[in-house]
Write a structure and sequence with these properties.
Layout lengths: L1 E2 L16 E2 L24 E9 L9 E8 L5 E7 L10 H9 L3 E5 L19 H14 L1 H7 L7 E11 L1 H9 L3 E2 L17 E5 L10 H6 L5 E2 L7 E6 L16 H5 L4 E6 L22 H19 L5 H10 L6 E5 L1
Parallel strand pairs: 5-6, 5-7, 7-9, 9-11, 11-12
Antiparallel strand pairs: 1-2, 3-4, 4-6, 8-10, 12-13
Helix pairs in contact: 1-7, 2-4, 7-8
């Protein structure tokens, strides 16, 4: 990674942002997206800045630190706001974020309060509310998108604020699903507040926990927010599950992670990866403890399908998703199975 000159702190964020270029093995054709996109050569170069800081409400206790990465050139860039899994931070999930940025998206990754980098103890009074603070973090990113855009050198004026998607893994997928319309049931089974956001068009939900009727005793006692209702999750979403993702939080087995597809209305697709565990081949990162089923091939499939899905969801004239689906269906050695409704 070669460094470009760092910039001075901006008054809007009180953060020092730096940019860097990274080489990517991915390539783009430029013909599968109707809007302006980086050229094939430029799409392999990504600029990034971290941490960029958004002032947070006093109850959060910490300002929100985010990472922003984007292609070095091109305009009218769509946005993906990504929510990390438990304990991770804005520095995780590079296999996805770097690829999406190289493919023409602005990718924003906030650090939630459960991140190990913040070292907030379990007994902290904010802990019971962290699930909700996570949702508020994503909303804060959407509210501050103009600030973030202006804080990254070379990005100002290149972002399409009308084309926004959310994505997340594990707990982050539950966080992202809330902006798509999912709700959390209270102790009486009544859906809680609607925290969906009309600015968000679609989502990619990786290893999204299922319904709360099969929680283990530990999960039921300690994780009361893990009782989602998908009845109102109407926004389009690609849901990705592993057929060997056997969670210690549910008594059901891997099919628990398909509940969002089964129980939500509207246009949804479900990609079930053969042999995949919770890390889905390594989406959090390579050679990390959480990746128990490292498979570059699975990660490559997720990157390819998620990119095609979001392009088509954010640009309806785009045909890339249909082409990607056909390619998977015709692959005799496919790594997964795809359903759509």
């Amino acid at each position: 990674m070669s460094a470009i000159s760092p910039t001075s702190p901006t008054s809007a964020t009180s953060a020092t942002s730096s940019t860097s270029s990274t080489s990517s093995t991915s390539s783009t054709s430029g013909s599968d997206h109707p809007g302006p996109r980086p050229s094939t050569a430029a799409a392999a170069t990504v600029i990034s800045a971290r941490p960029v800081v958004l002032p947070a409400p006093s109850g959060r206790g910490e300002d929100l630190q985010v990472s922003v990465c984007a292609p070095a050139t091109g305009g009218d860039l769509p946005v993906i706001v990504f929510s990390h899994g438990f304990g991770w931070s804005m520095d995780g999930y590079a296999p996805l974020a770097d690829h999406w940025a190289a493919e023409g998206f602005v990718v924003v990754r906030p650090t939630h309060l459960d991140s190990r980098t913040l070292a907030i103890p379990h007994e902290d009074p904010r802990t019971p509310r962290i699930w909700r603070t996570r949702v508020e973090d994503l909303t804060l990113v959407l509210d501050g998108l103009g600030v973030l855009e202006a804080s990254v050198p070379g990005l100002a004026g290149r972002v399409d604020h009308g084309r926004i998607a959310v994505a997340g893994h594990s707990w982050g997928a539950q966080t992202a699903s809330t902006l798509l319309g999912a709700r959390v049931l209270d102790a009486d089974g009544v859906p809680g507040e609607d925290m969906s956001d009309p600015r968000v068009t679609a989502g990619v939900l990786l290893a999204l926990p299922g319904l709360g009727d099969s929680l283990t005793p530990f999960a039921a006692e300690n994780l009361p927010f893990m009782k989602p209702s998908f009845d109102t999750m109407t926004a389009p979403a690609l849901i990705v599950a592993g057929d060997r993702d056997d969670s210690a939080l549910s008594t059901r087995g891997p099919d628990w992670f398909t509940d969002a597809y089964t129980h939500s209305p509207g246009r949804k697709s479900l990609l079930t990866l053969f042999g995949a565990e919770h890390s889905l081949g390594g989406v959090p990162g390579t050679e990390v403890a959480e990746t128990t089923d490292e498979s570059p091939e699975r990660v490559a499939l997720i990157r390819r399908l998620s990119t095609a899905y979001l392009r088509s969801a954010l640009s309806p004239a785009d045909t890339g998703w249909r082409e990607a689906v056909a390619a998977l269906e015709n692959d005799p050695r496919a790594l997964g199975d795809l359903l759509s409704k």
